[in-house]
Design goal:
The protein has helices at residues 2-12, 18-40, 46-49, 52-63, 74-84, 89-112, 116-124, 131-134, 137-151, 156-169, 174-185, 189-206, 209-215, 244-263, 269-287, 295-302, 305-310, 322-343. By secondary structure, the protein is mostly helical. Helix 2 packs parallel to helix 7 (116-124), helix 11 (174-185) packs across helix 15 and helix 15 runs antiparallel to helix 16 (295-302). The radius of gyration is 20 Å and the shape is globular. 42% of the residues are buried.
Length: 345
């Protein structure tokens, strides 16, 4: 309903009109509060929310005074144990939801000022948003901490702190962190477009080679086991093979970046970093696309997809009726989410 109402505003009002700005501010605050409360106050259930049951088991163990035995993602377990002393499991999951959602709001406000709600709505309307706030909770929180790091690119100490914290919450964030490091050395999008395109025939031609290759690098945690050992963690998502549907979904960000940077000459250093991180990490996923539950690797780029698409629209004018085009983007982007999570679920 909110997406449709927002699209209606894009068709009837100018982006700078007072009525539109008032709508964006009011609706944005309501949706921010609603999403945190709706997600955070859900029932504590592993049946409906996957890994939530496992997290609750850890939380109850820490409430009983048991020590931390986890060897990976220690920061998350330290956080959970500290929370177990002062709050219930329900409050803990509410806090996790706030940590997951608030950085998306904060980045949107910092980057897009009066028009932050367009970016925020795209972020919370993303295909994987709900799943990583209710199931892959650690991963979702870690990606949000990574997003906060991007806000502080001009304050290196703060940025490094959030990058390290994100990696300590979920080790998989090492991949986008390394990708960001590469963009500091080489930030030319053209080269990364070639990398992304090359990943498709390499994946098609070499099949399972890439899964075995990356699994053999010795990352040392159960997430890499998805590449070679099947569904050892009993996750719900089980579609395997070369996922053309997800590749097309990923390609929307690639097309957006190509259109704005190459065709329209959009020169924005921060956007180039964001786009290049997306291209690198998504190319990695394409190489291992056949792996069981490769969506867990896809998410390491997908959490940035909404920003890759919407950023240029809110920074520079490219179209005569750009506000209307933003509406078309909103409805098209959310339609995929609705199709996958409601119609085809």
């Amino acid at each position: 309903m909110v997406v449709l109402l927002t699209v209606l505003h894009t068709q009837l009002l100018g982006i700078d009109e007072r009525k539109n700005k008032s709508y964006l501010q009011f609706t944005g605050k309501i949706i921010l509060l609603f999403v945190i409360l709706y997600m955070g106050l859900r029932p504590v259930s592993g049946f409906y929310f996957g890994d939530m049951g496992t997290y609750n088991m850890y939380f109850e163990s820490y409430q009983e005074g048991n020590p931390i035995i986890a060897k990976d993602d220690v920061a998350f377990h330290l956080f959970m144990k500290a929370c177990s002393y002062v709050m219930t499991a329900g409050t803990f999951f509410l806090l996790c939801a706030a940590i997951y959602v608030l950085p998306l709001w904060y980045l949107s406000k910092k980057w897009f000022a009066d028009y932050w709600f367009y970016a925020f709505l795209l972020l919370v309307g993303s295909f994987s948003f709900w799943a990583y706030g209710t199931n892959g909770i650690r991963n979702g929180m870690a990606t949000s901490l990574f997003i906060i790091a991007l806000v502080f690119t001009e304050r290196k100490a703060v940025m490094i702190f959030f990058l390290l914290l994100a990696c300590a919450v979920h080790k998989s964030i090492l991949l986008p962190t390394v990708a960001y490091g590469l963009t500091l050395v080489q930030n030319n999008p053209k080269k990364y477009f070639y990398v992304w395109l090359a990943a498709i025939p390499l994946s098609l031609a070499l099949g399972g080679f890439w899964e075995n290759f990356f699994a053999g690098l010795g990352f040392g945690d159960d997430r890499m086991s998805y590449l070679t050992e099947g569904n050892i963690n009993e996750d719900d998502f089980s579609s395997t093979g070369f996922r053309w549907d997800f590749l097309i979904y990923s390609a929307t960000g690639v097309f957006a970046g190509y259109y704005f940077v190459i065709k329209k000459g959009f020169k924005d250093k921060l956007y180039h970093h964001l786009l290049n991180i997306y291209l690198i990490v998504n190319a990695f996923w394409i190489l291992v696309i056949r792996a069981n539950f490769s969506n867990r690797f896809a998410y390491l780029s997908w959490f940035m997809l909404a920003l890759v698409i919407i950023y240029p629209f809110l920074k520079q004018r490219f179209f005569l009726k750009q506000h209307q085009v933003i509406g078309y983007v909103l409805i098209a982007y959310f339609t995929f989410t609705y199709l996958m999570n409601v119609i085809l679920a």
